[in-house]
Amino acid sequence: MEWSNYSMYADFVLLGLFSNTRFPWLLFAFIVLVFVISVASNTMMIILIHLDSRLHTPMYFLLSQLSIMDILYISTIVPKMLVDQMVDQRAISFAGCTAQHFLYLTLAGAEFFLLGLMSYDRYVAICHPLRYPVLMNRKVCLLIVVAAWLGGSIDGFLLTPVTMQFPFCASREINHFFCEVPALLKLSCMDTSAYETAMYVCCIMMLLIPFSVISASYTRILITVYRMKEAEGRQKAVATCSSHMVVVSLFYGAAMYTYVLPHSYHTPEQDKAVSAFYTILTPLLNPLIYSLRNKDVTGALQKALGRCSSSGRYTFQRNFICC
Fold first, then answer.
1. Predicted model pTM
2. Model confidence at 318, in pLDDT bands (50, 70, 90)?
């Protein structure tokens, strides 16, 4: 068919996030600020965890992996969107859309699994503190990280080829700011209902498996916390777990809205708003939630800033004496 070649190689057009806003450049400036702070704060988390020996624990090792995922996640989508707005260009090639689609699915899937497996770390730390070094040794931590990345990669490798093999012979305009599955499928001139049902089941499984681990872990944690006699220990346990639960609720809640809730219950504009939340704001919120509520991280930051300040004063004094 004549349209098959066109559907495979023609560029798409991303309508973007700025098209229906009254103040597009104000939104542009806000997203630039969020992107810079997100990358900087996640990078800072990785550096602090690497440099401070007090943070060389399984929990912080997993947090460093979460920060790496967040940096890659937001960098997959936001720079392209910002450049398009600056040069007033909306086109994205078929290959570019495929790559963005694959990276998005892989990173989102990896983060789903990692957040689920991180609840096991909290379960062992609170319910079996004496066995924590054994149950969460370096090998187990590496297995958790590999399992998360492998799970995300399988999601990307399974869904991307199937999604992109559909003939897109309708309009090439994607009513979104990146190549997300639901927005792409609306452009297909074939019946995608069977694939959408399969994808729905796949998403349910991807959410159900980590959510089952989280539910089981936190059920045991709540029972253990309830039995604690010391108020200080109870408060510490709740504070440690609450940060993780906030992040899980934000990320899983947005994903369930987009992929589990039937399309008739939300509009394309609502889809873009929710997608902006979990692709742009969540990578910013993760390090802030974990750092602001964590004395170890704030202590490591103060220590690092103190070192920089002392080093700066020493360098100034040495240069002054030499002069």
1. 0.84
2. low
